[in-house]
Amino acid sequence: MPDTNKLSRRRFLKATGGAATAAALAGCTGGDGEETTTTESGGEETTTATTTEEDTGTELSGSVFNRILSGTITTMDPVAATDTSSGIIIQQVFDCLMSYPNALPTVENELAADYTVSEDFTTYTFQLADATYHNGETVTASDFIYAWERLAASENSRRAYFILDSVGVEHETDGEGNYVPGSLGVEVGETETELVVNLSEPFHDTLEMFAYTSFAALPEGVLGDVEGYDGEMEYTEFASNNPIGAGPFEFAFWEQGTAAAVSKYDDYYGQVAQVDNVRWQVIEDDTARYNYAMNENADYFGLPTAQYDPGLVQVESTDEYGREIGQYGPVRNGQTLNYVGVPTLSIFYVGFNMEKVPKPVRQAFAYVLNQGQMVSEVFKGRGSPAQLFTPPTIFPGGAQAANELIDSEYPYNADETDIQAAREVMEEAGYGEDNQFEVQWTQYNSNTWEEMASILRDQLASAHINMQIQKADFSTLLERGRNGQLEAYTLGWIADWPAPDNFLQLLNPPQTDTSEQGPISYVNWTSENGDAYQQATDAYQQVVNNPAPTDEAQQIRDEAYVDIETANWEDVAMLPIYNRKDETFWYDTVNIEPFGGMGPSRQKLNNVTLNR
Amino acid sequence: MSRWQYFLRRVLMSIPVVIFGTTITFALIRLGPLDPVSAILGTQYNPQAAEQIRTNLGLNQPLWSQYLDFMYDLFTFQLGQSWVIAPGTTAYELIEIYAPRTIWLGFWSVVIALFVGIPLGFYAGLNPNTPSDYAASFGGIVWRAMPNFWLAIMLVTALSQLGTWTNGLFTWQTWIVRTNVVTPPALGFFQSPVEQFLADPGGWTESFIRATKQIAPAALVLGSASMGNEMRIGRTAVLETINSNYVETARAKGVSGRSLVWKHIFRNALIPLVPIITGEAFLLLGGSVFVETVFAINGLGWLFFNAAINGDLPLIGTLMFIFILILVGTNILQDFLYTIIDPRVGYDG
Fold this sequence. Notes:
heterodimer; A: 24 strands; B: mainly alpha; MetI-like fold; 15 helices; 74% helix; SBP_5_dom (chain A); Peptide/Ni-bd (chain A); TAT_signal (chain A); signal (chain A)
């Protein structure tokens, strides 16, 4: 069923990006922090490493790298986790075949020591590294078969479509289209550490997908939630007290809603961790997180926008990945912090339900919105203004090609508030002082976004558009989106893998129909409400028809990506606002590599060292 | 009517209250716009995954059947498992984790209010229109007027910066015992207090002091409003009693000052304070989402709030059920207290 797979793959794309969004909108990346306590006496400052004496939780022995999580942790089961906080810890405890080194957007081998791909790109053969789990067992190919079977078939899995549809590993389905347990096209090769994976068709980001923690290895038979296994432990025991992986850190403790920690795994097959423990305190409130960090309870953290002052950043160097590295400070406690700011592969945008918001109104939004102004005034420069839906670093031809396209073809005056043009397009469509268009703007509960919405509302008032601002929590916002009840809404998207199709599948018109089950985005793009409907649809079909990781297919996809972007400009289905910049700050007590564009949650911490 | 008949009547009358409250909870969560499946999947919404979760959670069954299951489980104390906040963990376990902090916080905030607010109020009432009365009354009004959300943020910020302001001479974090300004206190020492105390009295005491110090700022904030309330009401109540005829009579009879105050004034002045104090008991349960958030004490209030916005029905249902039970319980307790304090109130009528 190649077609279904393709559609679902897009769906997947949407889905994954969404998670990022959620995290982003929630306002944070997992910050970090440290739990050093600093005693000041007579102007002399002594820093002592402490265990968790001041906090709740088990005490840890040895050095502790202290960080903060801004969202609550829900589970330690890699196939069940959907939130960033859980993901950050799972990333340390479990290893996958591939990984993003320091979250840079190029995958490299992790548990895979080596791999080969068949000529038709449908068979991947992995040689596994000589690795052991935290319980001492050896990592074998049959563990992957078991772990992936859980991903596909366990009732606890929330990511079955990753393996069945997104990557499209061969499998059988029953009459109703459900996965038949045990039918995955994954097998043990010639040795017990050779893993053979058969795909039903080529997919250009297969290896990137295998870096997702959902695909992590776990000891065969540890849980009994798939057929043929009784389980060595209870599910809740594994998911909250005793997860066993092959990652650089062993699970230490997790106290619900409070804190969690992992400890160094001495027999790790790769670089053994340099710190004895990593501990995360869960603090959801911005102010509390800021105070915790300023009291030097955390080594490594993020700063909330309210407490962030762009004037304190001193960038010393910008590297090839666009990472800005430097200093930040002095901060409230007098210290100067180390700083890294990284443009992450993300896009934040305004989506329009095109059935309810006519084209002239959408164009008026595009004329009025000044992305540059919003980024500098509202987001304090923590991002870069975007006119394209694809982040410039992964746009075909890179940032330069992206800028050239914007300069030559962007129809609405980039980085300028053109109220006059907006008014004209509205008046041409018959709107006026006495005939204003009413539009409802729905956004996540965030003061920053509300500030932006108010600016837009005031500007649009002069263009005969009366905008009402409404806020909603995520569960409500998305539910209403899927039911087609939104008009203008804001959401974001963060890359699961570094390719434009991950983003642009949101703009595949047939998948935006909210009357169907499970739309990818909620814009209802049809030929009636958009002139470029056909262009976008055809272009996306080109992407779907050329999935192989070859230069030829790549080129066809690249052309199609540009077509989708220009179609979106024409019809204004989604109005991009900015690409977020993730920034982290740390005291001199830590040496840590800057993270890359996949975001801080993808960084493994075995190379971190402490100096106190 | 005997005490027991009275008690039975009160208990019977509370049953419809409990049913009504839990029904409303169910209706708000299941009929409102909250979708737990969306909360679980986030924007990573996949129809297949969603369908599977829906089936697992039983959300595909007819609403009336979900309602009956929900009510049956609650009233037979089969408290379900959380859907969103901590999938697979029972609501009971979650409450066990989150409740102690909130109770600890609530306990200290009520204690602060009781032992500062009431004595001050009584003192002011016994010495009306003196400078100390003015000082106490003015303080009470100011204290009452400071909103929690403001006071909490100011206090956290100030405590965090004491070290900088005093040039390192005094830091809150190192004062007496080392604690953080924010984050929940460690309450492990309550698990088997007697044994632990006997095994290591010094360590136990230190843990106790540490936990108390850690919760003190939050408790002060949370107790501040009630402290002001109790002070004001205490003052008025004392003034009213002190000027009543029976006090004058007692005085005329030559009752000593001490006995006059403790036997005739204090007891009667407490009457209007009883509903105020029992009302505060709610702090023990719900705490304050805001204070807990600012001090990063993720307690019951925080859990309740998160469960509510994520549509975590089993968890929110259980919490509501328990809250309602406790509230109904405190109301019954309040009536009993009346009969003990106020001789005019009996079981008849």
